[in-house]
Amino acid sequence: MRRLEGKRAIVTGAGSGIGAAVAERFVREGARVAVADIDLEAAKRVAFGLGEGARSYRLDVTRPEEVEALVRGVLDEWGGLDVMVNNAGVGVAATIPETREEDWLRVMDVNLKGTFLGMKYAIPAIRDSGGGSVINMSSIAALVGIKDRAAYSAAKGGILALTRAAAIDHVEEGVRVNCIAPGTVDTPWIERITAGYEDPAAARAAMQARQPHGRFVTPEEIAAMAAYLASEEAESVVGACMVVDGGMTAR
Q: Which end of the chain offers a freer environment for a tag, N or C, measured as fewer CB atoms within 10 Å?
């Protein structure tokens, strides 16, 4: 399918995992994509693999001047912006008493502030380009309790609430704002989050076992949802939280 033919998109955290899969799906469906990541070499590798439809950028989503410059750069190069995917995120495995304040602040900065800044600069650009779609990456941790994910759950819950507020504020401007709530996705994030456990392999197995459909969600499954939300097929989808979790929240 070529549902995104001619669209201009930014994907943050696109150097690996979900972000890389979203960038690949968007290019395959006809979009031009700014592959943005704090790891520039990772962004370059992804963009190079996608060919002429992609450009790589280094981006720290917690720095407003960098987010504003990225949006401005896309406007200068491609003449507009149609889709913004706020995907960059970090997590920490800890309960509230175990969470260090510096970890709390980092998780909030990257996940919640990063999403705020992405919308702050992308929404006016999308509006002025004739309208389009903002897709924020929340989590099922915003919807149900997940063990040892206190800070992460709070940040992802904030993204869900911020998505709904922005959706109502900007729907009349032609900007649709939605979020995706993935379950446990098979990305490098799993290795990072389980590294803090005494037995990382057992922690990984436990994460997989909690999936009712018996496996991790794939990055490509999240990318498919993002492509739908970015397309005209989703014109009546506004302020939604699209759950892709293998049944975890159905229990």
A: C
